[in-house]
Design goal:
By secondary structure, the protein is an alpha/beta fold. 36% of the residues lie in helices and 12% in strands. It is built from 14 helices and eleven strands. The chain has an eight-stranded parallel beta barrel, surrounded by seven helices. The protein has a two-stranded antiparallel ribbon with strand order 5-6. Strand 3, helix 4 and strand 4 form a beta-alpha-beta unit. Helix 9 crosses helix 11. The relative contact order is 0.16.
Length: 453
């Protein structure tokens, strides 16, 4: 039986595209990381196609400490702070959601609650927070540490962090601010709620000095796929970005995480699971293969090896032969789920170190596919109809061309199959994603009607 509803699509915007050599492509905007007009045009392209949101990753460091490889890549060298950037994009767009990454490892809850509530007001209800724990070891040195806290400790902090942020977002009831000039009453005192949180990691009094957000709370997004990440997502997330290579892997993840929701009093449709997909699209199969080959030829070996080392948890592979097998590695304290995915892949496919970095160059372990618009739509439909995804985090290999190809070629094919919207269903990101409005805990039932797409 055909699945009910339509898929959700986010545009994951890496400045020049997700392929590690994208900045060297002839059509690339070489200074994209600090080019505001470039980002505005990308957001408008995604909005024209009726994407749910644009999404920005982040790193609070120049990730590659090796100056030789760092000097040959545009990844996480110089780029805008995402909340600042999305605040500017909010003024240049009207409908598309705006999701920014902010780590719980090197931030404080009050800062994050205030910034995202402000973005939600600026955008009139289009903000989303991608909650992550930092995985790049280079970040630790920028915040007075020699290394990250242990993986389990980072997730314990993240869980409490999320509770504090959502509590601060409920500092005021929806109609607390009466602003009655005649009586002189600015807000109703009974509708202010002081958090007074005190826990293992945080002591936060509150209240937040921003009114309750237009969509109640900004949409909470999460990206971890480890055991701790899955449990945190089941408890707190409304959207989860994940990486999977096969339909079976994606189905297993989808079933597992959706199956955890009930113990937190949540329904399966309260969480949208969006695997990453990086499509190379041609008007013919041959054209798609040519585009792929062109990008692969642009990979500098130092960059490929550095990327692989980072994704394996920061382990130095420079002493091993590129055409030899991946060595046995100790368990990472950084990106556990991504390390396992890559090690399993290398063992299963018999990849050398060089073959493995070439394989991840396009999408860093996410699902990379290529073909015609029909080929791409066929595969997306199979995952969507097969209960492997509620939609996709689209990761164009190059920008702007990769996003243009998806919008101009694949989106019309998805619409022809009635798999994707022709118009936005609502005004806010929450409404367009089909997520319920989070009523204030102190408000009576029916205080405000949920607008669900």
């Amino acid at each position: 039986m055909a699945r009910q509803g339509q898929m959700k699509l986010n545009a994951f915007l890496h400045p020049t595209g997700h392929h590690v050599a994208a900045w060297r492509h002839p059509s690339a905007v070489a200074d994209a990381g600090v080019n505001f007009d470039h980002y505005v045009e990308l957001a408008r392209t995604a909005e024209r196609a009726k994407f749910d949101a644009v999404f920005l990753a982040d790193s609070a460091a120049v990730r590659d400490r090796n100056i030789e490889s760092a000097s040959r890549t545009a990844r996480y060298v110089v780029h805008f702070e995402p909340i600042t950037l999305l605040s500017g994009i909010a003024a240049a767009t009207r409908h598309i959601g705006l999701i920014a990454t902010a780590t719980t490892t090197y931030n404080e809850p009050f800062h994050i609650a205030r910034k995202f509530a402000s973005l939600d007001h600026i955008s009139k209800g289009r903000a989303g927070w991608n909650l992550v724990t930092s995985s790049g070891e280079a970040e630790a040195a920028n915040f007075g540490r020699d290394s990250h806290p242990a993986h389990a400790d980072r997730y314990d902090r993240a869980r409490e962090f999320a509770r504090v942020v959502t509590g601060l977002w409920d500092s005021w009831e929806d109609d607390a601010f009466v602003r009655d000039k005649e009586s002189g009453l600015y807000f109703e005192p009974s509708k202010q709620h002081v958090l007074n949180h005190r826990g293992p990691h945080f002591a936060v009094r509150g209240p937040l000095n921003v009114a309750r957000a237009p969509q109640g709370r900004p949409v909470l997004v999460q990206a971890g796929s480890s055991e701790a990440g899955r449990e945190l997502a089941a408890e707190t997330a409304e959207v989860i970005f994940t990486a999977a290579q096969t339909l079976q892997e994606a189905q297993a993840f989808y079933t597992d995480v959706k199956g955890r929701l009930a113990r937190y009093g949540r329904r399966p449709d309260h969480l949208k699971i969006l695997p990453g997909v990086s499509p190379i699209i041609g008007r013919t199969t041959e054209e798609a293969e040519e585009k792929f080959a062109q990008l692969q030829e642009l990979i500098h070996p130092a960059v490929g090896l550095s990327l692989l080392s980072q994704m394996l948890g920061g382990f130095d592979l420079s002493g091993f032969p590129l055409d030899g097998p991946l060595p046995d590695l100790p368990e990472s304290n950084a990106a556990k789920s991504r390390q396992k995915l890559l090690v399993d892949l290398a063992r299963r496919e018999g990849f050398s170190i060089r073959q493995l970095y070439q394989w991840i160059a396009g999408a860093r372990g996410h699902w990379a596919i290529r073909g015609t618009a029909k080929d791409i739509a066929d595969q997306l439909e199979a995952w969507f109809e097969g209960d492997a995804a509620d939609g996709f985090n689209v990761m164009p290999p190059t920008l702007p061309g990769g996003l243009d190809d998806f919008v101009d070629l694949v989106v019309p094919e998805l619409r022809r199959r009635k798999l994707f919207r022709g118009e936005y269903e609502g005004r806010t990101l929450r409404e367009n994603l089909g997520l319920p409005y989070p009523h204030h805990p102190a408000a009576s039932v029916g205080h405000r009607t949920a607008a669900v797409g």
